[in-house]
Structures are given as C-alpha cells and as structure tokens.
Amino acid sequence: METSTITFDQLPHVVSGLSEKLDRVLELLEKVGAANPFKQHKPSRKIVHAKEACTIIGKSLSTLYRAIKAPNDPIPSYKRGKLLYFYEDELYAWIENGRKHAVAPSFEEQVAAVTAGMKRRPRGGYNF
C-alpha cells in the first residue's frame, strides 16, 4: 500500500471522500442491523398491567374485567398465564373510538324535540 502525503489544498477533497465512504459503510451496517450494537431495541408500544390500565381509563378493576368481556366493544387485552396485559396506545385508541361525534342540532330539530315531549298543545300556541 502506497502512502501519499496530503497537502493543505487537497484536504477538503479528501475529507469529503472520507465522509462519502463513511456514509456508505453506515448504510451497509444499517441494512445488516449492526449499526449500533449497544443500542437496545425498545418496544415502540408500552405494555401496562391491569392496575395501570384502570388509571388510564379511569375505571375500577372490576369494571375493567367486565369491560374486557363486553360483547359489543371489549377493551383490547392479552392474557398470558394468569396476568392480563394491555398496550397503552390501544387503550387510548379504544377511548377515542368511543367518542361520540355529536353535531349541534339545528333549530328545527330542537323545536321538534321540545314539541315531541309535550302532552298537549298550549292554548296560546307555540312561542318559538
């Protein structure tokens, strides 16, 4: 291997070449999956237990167990052995899916709701 002396004028060109080579090496290592062996792979989703799930949804433990077995909209859960596990993001998604998207009723709908609840028509007529 022949070693050449780098002059000050060649320095920017050599540094850019080294930077390109380093980028290619890092790309190859990322493809292999060994870019950072000391980096621990964290799960992207956080697992919580039943008591933590109770605090997230704001219900008691007995209500949580009943809601897991609900036929219409059960709480997403996983059971391994005797323990129940929940994913925090799934609990928040379950809460969001239960939100009612109510649109404010129009004036005519409000009048119809009020008059439907009356047993008889007032003598002076409706005052709307």
Distance between the ends: 97 Å
Helix content: 40-55%
Instruction: Please provide the ordered H/E string of secondary-structure elements.
Output: HEHHEEHH
**Helix-strand makeup class:** mainly alpha
Summarize the model shown:
The protein has 128 residues and is mostly helical. Helices cover 45% and strands 8% of the residues. The chain has a three-stranded antiparallel β-sheet with strand order 1-3-2.
How are the SSEs ordered, and which strands pair?
Layout lengths: L10 H22 L14 E2 L1 H8 L3 H8 L9 E3 L2 E5 H10 L9 H10 L12
Antiparallel strand pairs: 1-3, 2-3
Keywords:
mainly alpha, 45% helix, 128 residues, single chain, three-stranded antiparallel β-sheet
Structural write-up:
This protein is mainly alpha-helical and 128 residues long. It is built from 5 helices and 3 strands; from the N terminus they run αβααββαα. Strands 1-3-2 form a 3-stranded antiparallel sheet. β2 (78-80) and β3 form a beta hairpin. The protein is elongated. The mean pLDDT is 81.
